[in-house]
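Next comes the chain:
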Amino acid sequence: MTTLVTGATGGLGRNAVEWLASQQQAVRGSGRNLAAGAALQAQGIEFVAADLATAQSEEIDRLLDGVETVWHCAALSSPWGRYEDFYAANVTATTRLAGMAAMRGVRRFIHISTPSIYFDYRHRANIPETFRPARFVNHYAHTKALAEEGIRALAARHPRTTFVMLRPRGIFGPHDRVLLPRILRVLHERNGRLPLPRGGAARLDLTYAGNVVHAMQLATTRADIVSGEAFNITNGEPVMLRETLAALLAALGVDCRIVALPYPVLNFVARAMEARAALTGKEPSFTRYGMGALNYDMTLDIGKAWRVLGYRPVVTMDEGIAATALRMRKHGDAHGF
């Protein structure tokens, strides 16, 4: 039986399909990036081009043909954009895929959610899965929370399918097209200077992509999981942002000088950029959420994942940094910076 991985052309999804293929497991990947899809096909991995936000029921039905497990990594993940687009990609697409999977008798549906649903512009430590802010910080967080509600409703109606939700924090590693590329772009634009609130003193949890894939496999194989449960996933090694960035950039051979700027100043600039973006329709370089995420401490309690899933990170932060740097040097991701 086959595992369907949605978002297979994104960072986490691509790590997932490559790992499944390396384990000789039947896997079908779907995604929107045709070039990345062709690269997967060149590796002998089945790929089906699909945009779940606009796909017809017949397309989804074909995606699910012969599928026993779904790893749903696809999402619209951005700090900026139209609510309608986030709702279509994160709520409608997720609940429709999950509902059709349950109707077809899919055994496990693993949904990748996000700790962004916790963020509230405050320092937070050891956040449990039950925490919710007074209001969600942006459209992404709001729609991902709504998707979780939809998953829980389906879990109550379809006992034959076990639904599991994972909330990995700060994913980095091979095929990352978000976190590190943005940092490298800023360094390139600012001649090696990286402005950070508090000089990068924020204490954060990050997660190596391979550890998220490991958690997905555990969520697939554990027999005693209550359907509809959610789990925080991290490397379990809270780090100081500036120290981790310095280690990674040094491993890449990239010169970097972190410049400490007052958070109120950066927040003001982000607000001005968002106001301009509202007029131009172009995504701002800085957003209030982006600056806030770099300013405030945020660590998660992963005790539930340890107890229920048996989750233990298989790659340490140091190992993950080394592997990420090696991959980027090998494939030229840091070229020109």
